[in-house]
Amino acid sequence: MIVVENLVKTIRRQKVLKGIDITVQQGSITGIVGRNGAGKTTLLRTIAGIINPTKGNVTFDGKSVYAFPEVKQNIVFVPDTTDALKQYSIKEIVSLYGLIYSNFDSEYFYSLLRRFSMKETGKIRYFSKGQKALFSLILAFSTNAKFLLLDEPTDGLDVIIKKEILRFIAGEVAERDVSVVISSHRLDELEALADHIIVLKDGIVDSHLDMESLKQKYRKLQVAYENHLPDGLKKHLDILHNSGRVYIILVPSDDEETIDLLQKSNPLLYEELPLSLEDIFVAKLGGDSYAS
Amino acid sequence: MLPKALWKKEWKHVSLIAWGILIIFLLEYPFKASMKIEEWKEEREHYVLDWEWNNFLIHQMEYSFTASVFTVFAVVLIIVLAGILIGLERSSKRHDFSLALPFSKRSMFLTKWVLGFATILFSYTVSFWLGYLVLLRSEYGYVLTELDVTTIFFAPLAAYFVIFSLAMLIGTIAGDMRSQVTLSFIFLFFAQGFSIILLHFLATHGLIYFDYVLPPFLQDIFWPTYLTSMNIAIADLIYPIIGGVIFFIVGMLLFEKAPAEHSGEFLVFRSLHPIFAFGILISSALAGGLLMTTMISFGFTGGINVLSYWIGAIVAGGFSWIIIKRLLQISK
Predict the structure, then answer these.
(1) Other residues' Cβ atoms within 10 Å of the Cβ of residue B327
(2) What gap in Å lies between CA A153 and CA A178, rounded to an integer?
(3) In terms of C-beta distances under 8 Å and separation of at least 24 residues, what long-range contacts does B17-20 make, across chains too?
(4) B332 in contact with A at a CB cutoff of 8 Å?
(5) Fewest CB atoms within 10 Å of the CB: A47, A130, A168, B303?
(6) Where in chain A are the domains?
(7) Domain A2-202 class, CATH top level
(8) How far apart are the first and last CA of chain A?
(9) d(CA A155, CA A162)
(10) Quick check: A202 and A229 in contact, CB under 8 A?
């Protein structure tokens, strides 16, 4: 279990993380979402022990990652590029990882390369961008570490390789005793993958959500009126989209009073639409920069 | 025991320059010794008297172990080696990769330092003794008994030790390889250089006489002196050894404290910015004043001298201020 306690990080006199408290359980996929500059990468780099916190601590099974760096045998950080390894051949990388991570499984590593029809020799600098991303994940999963920290693993990749990577992550977590923490601004990807979502906003945890219960918390409705949505209702709901007299709105499922008022306001159209994670974030955090 | 994984990781990046250092030392010692022997064979006919010839040979033997152009290359390569070990990593994605590994920062620094110094020690020792053997097995080998070989061997080694440790220390505060290498060269000469420009300032303004001499301790800590064993006693080597040990310990402590979020900037410790800004400004102004008085008003005294000093100081200070602003802008 990774426990992040009251993590504060100040960079250039600006508080990037303002007291983060989170716990990542074994065998889960946790998505960290937030706008650009919300502190996602800083949080992951601090958990990985790359940067030291100004205040607070990160522990793995009760041991601080800063005081006992050897616990990082079980916390592998996967950055958004493979530049650190570009000078190495695959053989050299396997040899190096075998020395770094005591549980590194080279047979499993090569079997994954074969599964994805990737070259088993040569330097990774000649791989395509998608292959490099996949290679990083294969390498990380082959360490048999208990926690993987993935920083924007699908950023800039085409749809096909992106789906392949997401399927691979989901498959690995289901089959092996591994937990994954993924930072992303792509809600659609995390929606299909994550068990928990941590929303970072301006350096603090805005919400920590369980995906199972999240979608039951809200209802997405499409309503249309002869003139416009009654003003008295507007303060009780979030308008996701408005086109003329048609409104797509978000209402808390337990707010029966608002739902009752909506139904009694004589809408020309009243229908429930399938709810996505993106709808909740757009409504609750504002803007549409979470889903690009 | 330092982790094998770190050795392997570091060696991957320094192997090329390690070979470069070995080649330079091979040129410096065995190659140079072979060339000297050929030279002496031709020189022999110019000497009639045996005692003259012997004196010549003793001096030549000393010169064959003295600093040469290859020594300058060796110093440059050693500073670049330290730059590759610390600075180059900091300005690349390798830095995140390294710091995310399950090893302490102390073992990372120790591996870098030990690998770097072992490269120097091995290359130097092998080359030196190969050179010695070449001379010993030649017809002039008997002259080697006239030399203090212990000092001749250890003096340059102590100099390389202190220069490498200094460059590694600078690496812990510098944000990338360019700033590390530049600052390492500056700090190699800083204490003496700054003293000279400061004393010249005082002399120009009539506060001391122009025939000033540098305090002896500044000569003791002028590390390039030890690159040659000429006029150096074995006991004098205590200064570079103590200096190297201090730089090593301070470097290790600072490496552990260095904030990774400022890697790639000019300096990683932002608290040093005002000190460096002030230091560069003052040093440049003093150097500008010295240059102006020695080039323009050399031989003049009094008012003209002071006026030209201040013109030089203001111009150099102004330029340096522009450079300082640009340098520190990298860090914003």
Answers:
(1) 19
(2) 17
(3) B17/B77, B17/B80, B17/B81, B17/B84, B18/B81, B18/B119, B18/B123, B20/B77
(4) yes
(5) B303
(6) 2-202, 218-284
(7) alpha beta
(8) 32
(9) 9
(10) no
Please list, in sequence order, all residues whose beta carbon lies within 8 angstroms of the beta carbon of residue A49, skipping any fewer than 6 positions away. A58, A65, A66, A69, A72, A75, B99, B100
CB contact under 8 A, B102 and A83: no
Question: Which tokens sit at B66?
Answer: 């003295």
Mean predicted confidence (pLDDT) in A211-236: 83
User: What whole-number distance in Å separates Cα of residue B255 and Cα of residue B169?
Assistant: 8
* Total-model pTM: 0.87
CA dihedral B75→B78→B80→B82, nearest 10 degrees, is: -140
CA–CA distance, B128 with B144 (Å, rounded to integer): 14
Q: Do A84 and B9 touch (CB under 8 A)?
A: no
CATH top class, domain A218-284: alpha beta
| H/E element, A272 | strand A269-273
Residue-wise pLDDT tens digits, B277-316: 999 999 999 999 999 888 876 666 677 888 889 999 999 9
Res. A211: pLDDT tops 80 = no
Q: Answer whether A96 sits within 8 Å of B13, measured CB to CB.
A: no
Predicted confidence (pLDDT) per residue in B191-247, tens digit: 999 999 999 999 888 888 877 788 888 888 889 989 987 788 899 999 999 999 999
**Residue B133 amino acid letter:** L
- By C-alpha distance, the chain B residue nearest A96 is B5
The answer to whether B112 contacts chain A (CB < 8 Å) is no
Residue in A closest to B105 by C-alpha: A69
Residue carrying structure tokens 């994605």: B93
Give the CA radius of gyration of chain B: 23
Cα separation, A123 vs A131, whole angstroms = 12
Give the integer Cα–Cα distance in Å for A125 and B106.
Answer: 31
The interface residues of chain B toward chain A in range 2-21, judged by CB-CB distance below 8 A, are 3-5, 8-9, 12-13
Q: Mapping DSSP to helix (H, G, I), strand (E, B) and coil, where does residue A77 land? A: strand
Contact of B292 with B312, CB cutoff 8 Å: yes
Of A9, A69, A99, the CB nearest to B5: A99
d(CA A153, CA A170): 13
Q: Which residues of A135-159 are buried (b: 16+ CB within 10 A; e: fewer)?
A: bbbbbbbbbbbbbbbbbbbbeebee
Chain B residues near residue A81 by CB distance under 8 angstroms: 93
